[in-house]
Amino acid sequence: MKLFRLGHAPDTWDDTVNWARNKNYELAMVEQAGLILRKEGSDHYYDRFRSRLIFPIGDEQGRVIGFSGRVLGDDEKAAKYVNSPETPIFTKGRVFFGLDKSKRALLDAGYAVVCEGQLDLIACYMAGVHNVVAPQGTALTAEHARILKRYVDEVVLCFDSDTAGRNAAIRALDDLLASGLAIRVAAVPAPHDPDSFIKESGGAAFQQLISGAEGFFDFYLNHLCATNDVGQDKGRLGVVRAMREALHKTGNAVLADTYAQKTAQRLGVAVEAVRSEFKKVRSSQKVEAAADAPAGAPQPQARPSTPEFWLLKLLLLDDELPDCAVAHLDLNWVQHAAVRQIISARLAARPDGRWPSATTLLTELDDATARSLVTEAVSEQREIPNRSQQLADIMKRLRDQFVDRRLAHLAQRMNQPDSPDSDRIELLKQQQALRQLKQQPLLVRQPNPAS
Fold it and tell me: Average per-residue pLDDT in the chain?
């Protein structure tokens, strides 16, 4: 109770209203914060949360930005949960319950356990599973996936064992895959949810359940075989179609072939037949995409790499760092076009010597992708220790990656059989210069020897 700051809303209509008046808060502002409601057509206010167990919702720094209330009475007409509405500081699609307490455990474990609600999360925490988060009153969103990607590379979905829980896991696939996260699914035995399973079987059994979580596509194949009549042609075809569509989203040919074999084995059909069916979706979708896209239409950019995103974040959050970047950073090291555009604008000092702020950049940048990245980079202003050292480390990493790309390009040119000896000698000189550059500390901006 102390750790999660649980509270209680009394069974009255004016407890929070009176509290706000005693604190001399404007009731209109308290309404905007989502704590009270105004009776339509009057100036009378009443409490949003009544006779409920209260869960404070914190941001990543632990600052309370909203509340969730679980009903305590026997009123069958009352909603089981009442949540704060979205406000200027609370957007449910961008908030995880418990992240402020679990972020260190996420980094240590390397994966996140995602459960459905506050009670499940608290039960997991009490069972010793601290690398756990829960979406706040909504399904997993693309923004949720991006937040998780800052901390981990893998997600274990631990939803209820009922149909709704399984469907929630399936719906999460697209956004999690798009963010580059690996996915496993921990199947809680029916009729349990994580909370009831832990109460009945104990924390050790739950930890074992998480450790043994199966890969998403094993879970999905089991789900499809259980919900389709695989003894009939229609059911088998339904399983194959669903698997091929899901696997196509990964863009991973090895994974597709692995599950072509597993699907064929489960259905008792030839693996070549399943492989053939899996290939159909790729060819048909390419044709459709080509037909739908206007000539010359730009392709959507991929997410920037983690080092490039953190380079952007550090430079936007700290006005002391652009000087260092101007002296040591070569923008050729940055591959993501939008990140390169933003950093170039950020490092263009104004006549008064000041660096343009994130707010200024948002008004000046024309590219929607760039504006979105600026917003994302500055939205989470957690404490970042040793920022100067982190910036230096990231710039050196980007420089070395740039050098590696140049070396690979030079090696490819040298392998061309018709290259004259004079060109080979020049390419060898460039390779030597690049290797020497990679051995140097990042002291000053280095020229591009191969330019």
Answer: 84
* Cβ neighbours around 382 below 10 Å, total: 11
* Tokens 């996915």 found at: 183
Buried b (16+ CB within 10 A) or exposed e, 179-189: bebebbbbbbe
So what's the pLDDT on residue 288? 44
Task: Give the per-residue pLDDT at 444.
Answer: 43
- Give the pairing of strands 132-135 and 111-114: parallel
**Neighbour tally for 74: CB within 10 Å:** 6
pLDDT-derived band of residue 57, with 50, 70 and 90 as boundaries?
Answer: very high
Across 116-128, average pLDDT = 91
Q: CA-CA distance, 250 to 179, in Å (whole number)?
A: 11
Per-residue pLDDT, 363: 83
Which are the contacts of 15, defined by CB distance < 8 A and separation ≥ 6?
Answer: 9, 47, 50
Q: Give just the sign of the alpha carbon dihedral 30, 35, 37, 42.
A: negative
Q: Are residues 200 and 192 in contact, defined by beta-carbon separation less than 8 angstroms?
A: yes
Q: How far apart are CA 431 and CA 409, in angstroms?
A: 10
Higher-confidence residue: 210 or 171? 210
CA–CA dist 449, 431 (Å, integer):
9
Across residues 373-393, what is the average pLDDT?
A: 80
Q: In the sheet where 111-114 sits, what is the strand order?
A: 96-97, 132-135, 111-114, 154-157, 182-185, 214-215
pLDDT bin (cut points 50, 70, 90) of residue 157 is: very high
Helix, strand or coil, per DSSP, at residue 275: helix
Burial 315-348 (b: 16+ CB within 10 A, else e): bbbbeebbebbeebbeeebbebebbbbbbebbbe
Q: Tell me if 144 sits within 8 A of 116, measured CB to CB.
A: no
User: Does pLDDT of 16 surpass 90?
Assistant: yes
Distance CA 71, CA 51 (A): 6
Q: What is the pLDDT of residue 210?
A: 92
pLDDT reading at 321 higher than 80: yes
- Give the containing element (helix H, strand E) for 157: strand 154-157
Helix/strand/coil percentages in the chain, nearest 5: 55, 10, 35
pTM: 0.60
What domains can be seen in the chain, in order of their start residue? 7-90 (3.90.980.10), 94-219 (3.40.1360.10), 228-290 (no CATH), 306-439 (1.10.860.10)
Q: Give a three-class secondary structure readout of 315-369.
A: HHHCCCCHHHHHHHCCHHHCCCHHHHHHHHHHCCCCCCCCCCCHHHHHHHCCCHH
